[in-house]
What we know:
By secondary structure, the chain is mainly alpha-helical. It has helices spanning 44-55, 60-67, 71-84, 90-94, 98-106, 112-119, and strands spanning 18-22, 29-34.
Amino acid sequence: MSYPVINTCPICHHTLHVKKLECSHCHTTIENDFTLSRFSALSDEQMQFVEVFLLKRGNIKEVEKALGISYPTVRSKLNDIIDRLGHDSQSEKQAETASDIMTMLENDKISPGEAVERLKHTDGGNKI
């Protein structure tokens, strides 16, 4: 039976690293100091979200439908994953296009007044 790789120590909660790899067929063993993928830091729930996001080819409306969550929740989950992967999602949280804002308005996710305020912070429909 195989188990999923854990990436943090269950005792001290620091990052683990891989020391040994073994082929399941011929049993060749390779020992070194290997690092895990940044994606190994994602929770099972986050990995499921990434899988749905990829299968829906990044179409947020389709992700909303598939997971039964709202547009702001999709954006929040994406930002959490971006942060977890070691990137700065703060700039992404601020960077909405006019198209994003209009979509939220059309879907009653934001009020007309909020849309006007957000549109003031865009640069001609481009991300700021």
